[in-house]
Amino acid sequence: MSVRGSRAWLMFQNVQTTRVQDSILYLGRIAPSKYPDVLIEALGELKKKGVVFSADIFGDALPEDQKYLALLKKRADELALSPMVHFHDGVPNRDTPAIYTSHGIFVNLSKSGMYDKTIFEAAAAGCLPVASSKDYAVLADQQLTFDGTASHLVTVLEKLIRMSESDRDRLRKGSFELAAANSLETLGERLAQEIK
Question: Can you tell me whether residue 169 is helix, strand or coil?
Answer without folding.
Answer: helix
